[in-house]
Amino acid sequence: MKASKFYISTLREAPSEAVIASHKLMLRAGITRKLGNGLYTYLPLGVRSLRKLEEIIREEWNETAGALEFKPTVIVPGEIWKESGRWETMGPQMLKARNRGEQDMVVSPTAEEAYTAIVRDGLDSYKQLPVNFYQINTKYRDEIRPRYGVMRGREFIMADGYTMNADDESLDESYKAYEKAYFRIFKRLGLKIIPVRADSGAMGGSGSEEFMVESPIGDDTLIICPNESCGYAANVEKAACRDDESLDKNGKKHEKTDAAIEEVETPNVFSIEDMEKFFDESPKMFIKALVYRVINSALDLSSCPHAKDWKRVKESSGDYYPLSYACVLIRADLDVNEAKLASALKASEVVLADDEEIRQIAGAGHGFVGPVTAKAPLVVDSSVVKANDDGTMTAMMHDAIAGSGKDGFHIRHVEPLRDFTPFLCADVRTVKEGDKCPICGGTFYSTKGNELGHIFKLGHKYTKSMKVTFLDKNGKAAEPTMGCYGIGVDRTLASIIENNNDEKGIIWPMTVAPFQVCVVPIKYDGKMKEVADKIYETLKSDGIEVFLDDRNERPGVKFADMELIGIPLRITVGEKNLPNVEFKPRAQAEAELVPADEAAAKAAAFVKAELARLNA
Length: 616
Ligand code: ATP
Ligand code: MG
Hints:
Bound molecules: adenosine-5'-triphosphate, magnesium ion
Helix content: 25-40%
CATH superfamily of the largest domain: Bira Bifunctional Protein, Domain 2
Shape: elongated
Largest sheet: 9 strands, mixed
CATH topology of the largest domain: BirA Bifunctional Protein, domain 2
Strand content: 25-35%
CATH architecture of the largest domain: 2-Layer Sandwich
């Protein structure tokens, strides 16, 4: 490709709204241009890298994951979303529209429904399973805060695969095949990936895995075990840790007490710090009680007397409570993780209750919520009461101090399981740096990460709600199980740039570089033109993607553009160096002089070696 025939559109400065390196560089290099909030156009230069990235995913999903590409529409009937139940639960991030026939339509934010509806139609027998399809296609999510350019856009490209399997064993095979494909893809892109399991692999296999890149601008907090032989890594929204003991200020563990609950007048004691001062005791001896508003909980609360007034909605996909409350009990030195809490409550969202709601549920204001008197199901963290495998419960705190449910009073000698009974025992604490690994006991550290991909065992969620059946080996009707597998294509492209740049611009890995080599004549004229053209033609005929900067610009401008765009190798043809030319890999500081008639062969070898290294 010659610059004169291409569209180069570089900017000296990035618009001020771009704050991270990849966003700035994508705009400056002319890879993307903003069309609207969260809406980015790829310019021809960007499309070249984008298509290469898609092709790497395609190759690995075809070969390693054994998948077949299909192409559903982006706009799909609202009907199938109503069947799955997600018409209601997806919330405002799903863009809905009406067509001229007044039919509900959805701009796909993901495609479980479309895939399930398509495969359902032709499915009769176990012999047709598994069905392993993927697409690389446009998605739309009406993100509240699109940011960092294509890292979190509204319209983006997702590579999304789906499998329908006859049984768990088959799903496991599909899942592992995709997992292997993911490692191959990110290796070929030169990205160091942290696989983050949702549950601890050692304890019964994992049902979900996120593929993260470490990044200071990452949206996710990762909890990582430094022990390499262990390898535990989890999103803080899922991370678990070893139990640690509730010890008093002298480091002593308290025994179960026979003393009855005693009210203590505590005027002006509202916070945990106030309590520490007033009782002269460690927060590990206090039970913190928090009232949460719970949205769309699918828990069955019918055994809970406080829930009888809460509205319960009947749905084919299962009953749920649009609005309910929970009183969460946790050791006072710990924090509640709301994602873990929502998951324990099978809810779409949990929000701390406001003052009025707290008063309704607790009979007292913030700071005095009592575990004994709260009028809501008690969700008790395992720091307070632990559920054992055999169905019994063990109190993890004894002789504790807590709110009384009466303004201005606390209570002491609180005995969990004697003075209150959990509705649900769950691990809802926020795991932090310094907590211990549940597998090996190693001391966790924490880092920020960005999710590039996700593999997930869906189970029967969609096949049940959308009524998919097949005849199994014994001729009995059964519901297939499903897996889904997603990679954010734009976000991955941005992450490659985020990880590979310097003050001059992008440093593309060879596998996704828009061009592999650029030839820059200082002046496109006379002998320099002759030599540059020859190198260009030779490389082209050798199948190398070469860019010839034949523009009538100052050399400084051409160098700056080629460095900003990040082409991995530059061959500079200057009068004073002839019969030699400059050979400069973008990632290296120094250029090397090579004879002009050897330059093309050397460049081709360089490109092929780099490709071989990454694709190995
Ligand atoms: P996030 O937590 O970042 O919103 P998600 O859990 O909603 O991601 P999935 O539904 O698992 O994402 O989608 C699969 C992949 O699609 C993600 O791993 C991510 O790389 C990409 N992705 C999701 N939302 C966006 C977005 N708004 N812009 C760009 N890529 C996205
Ligand atoms: Mg999201």
